[in-house]
Amino acid sequence: MKLPRTTLILILLALGLGGFVYFYEIRGATVREEIKEQKQQIFSFAADDVQSLTVKTKKLTLNLERSPESSNLKWLIKSPVSGPANDAIVSYLMDLLVKGKSERTLSTPAKELGEFALDQPQATINITLKNRQSHQLILGKSNFNGRFLYAQTDPAAKPDGNINVLLVSTDFANAVNRELSEWKQPVDNSQKLPPLTIPKPSPTNSK
């Protein structure tokens, strides 16, 4: 029995639609769930746990330290100059360190660090906690589409000799690649301006 051409077209469309539903909705959902599960917190400490930060870029090595509790300032620059830090800039970086997540983790041989520019990183962030524990975040180059950065945390080879390479937000690069002047607390020029004086009208001579 030969089916009408219209019926064959409808059957083929139904099969195609069924295949799309399977691969996108069922299979695709499984893949999306696997990717979602791969997103992990970069670090597990809280912002208040951090005592000091050292940010090293190709232009600058900056040492930051939490100021005493009695101070109104949260952070101080210890070197290359001494003085109050821009709390908004430091808080932006701290927020990324505390809340940032790895989009994906790749296991790769240690000899391939250069493929991700992790052997000559654009920036290294050393974190010292109040309990004396230390952590490190190394930032490499952008991935192929520029959406993420390759990174390493607390570098150490696994038993199989491989290392973990993370995909993290490009916001990290924006947070650390700054001029020294940006890290300093802005000067409040309003405190230095002389008080505004209104000249008095000169007396007129009466005839």
Short overview:
The chain is of the alpha+beta class and 207 residues long. It is built from four helices and eleven strands. Helices cover 28% and strands 29% of the residues.
What does this structure look like?
This protein is an alpha+beta fold and 207 residues long. 28% of the residues lie in helices and 29% in strands. The chain has one domain (40-184). It is built from four helices and eleven strands; from the N terminus they run H-E-E-E-E-E-H-E-E-E-E-E-E-H-H. Strand 9 (134-142) and strand 10 form a beta hairpin. Mean pLDDT is 82; it is low at 24-37.
* Average predicted confidence as pLDDT: 82
Number of domain modules: 1
Low-pLDDT windows of residues: 24-37
Task: Give the percentage of residues in beta strands.
Answer: 25-35%
Shape: extended
Question: How would you spell out the order of helices and strands?
Answer: HEEEEEHEEEEEEHH
Give the count of helical stretches. 4
Compute the CA-based radius of gyration.
28 Å
Largest sheet: 9 strands, antiparallel
Helix content range: 25-40%
Please report the distance between the alpha carbons of the first and last residues. 127 Å
* Classification by helices and strands: alpha+beta
Strands of the largest sheet, in order across it?
5-4-3-2-8-9-10-11-7
Task: Tell me the number of strands.
Answer: 11
